[in-house]
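HOLO CASE FILE
Compound: iron/sulfur cluster
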Amino acid sequence: MTDVEKLLQLLKNKHKLVAMLAPSFPIMYDSAKIISQLRALGFEKVVEVSVGAKETNRQLGEYMKANPEKRLITSPCASFVRFIRTKHPEFVKYLALNVDSPMVATTKIVKEKYPDHLPVFIGPCIVKKLEASEDYPELNILVLTYKELESVFSQLLPSTPYTLNPTPSLDLSECSTRMYPTDGGLADSSGIRNIIGNDAVKVVSGYKNCETALIEFQNNPKIKLLDILFCEEGCINGPGITSTLSIDERKKRITDYALNGNPANS
Ligand code: SF4
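Model generated. Tokens follow.
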């Protein structure tokens, strides 16, 4: 059964579901419309993964404060984690695997608040499916890309009319980490530079730059944190996005939403 088929089945069975929208969603969707559409489909709760990103930042900051001698490579990018595990296992020791990714942190928060609901992560990344199934099977996260969500919409929305709520509210929301899917989003929103110093943070994105970044990290002990994402410019360029927008236009969408996004319940 594909993940789209799994979601269709869950919706048909009226399972209690939480949609967890990755912070890149404004590239593809108007926020008011997507929240209204998800609720019309049958999602009882709609939350932002930026909520978990704030927790990711908190965990990383606490760890680096408690372990000032440590040098770390960020771990929210499921592709980069797999790249290290398979191609450069000698760097595994640097991966901040004790810090939850935004998807995992959001899921843990959701499970605590809505224990009888199933978390459905909706985002730009196909490799998040592996993070969920291989690294966190106990959390039972269903992962769909935006492309797959489009397929669900095309199958169900024509027969499920929805009313557009101009000011729909999210069940869980966090503004401070809405820039997370851009490269350097973690470093910028976490305040980590205030803890370890500006020069100790290196931001890199793009698979072509990963090898060079690892060599630099190895040769330059002044780098305490390598904030790295496998897609060029970050998750805003993820493979699960269908968009003709340029990178600058995508960034603008994310920035606009970060500054002027929907009012939220919490
Ligand atoms: S940078 Fe790309 S591969 Fe990495 S988590 Fe984001 S979308 Fe996935």
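CASE NOTES: Residues 129 and 135 are 10 Å apart (CA to CA). The chain has a mean pLDDT of 94.
CLOSED: yes
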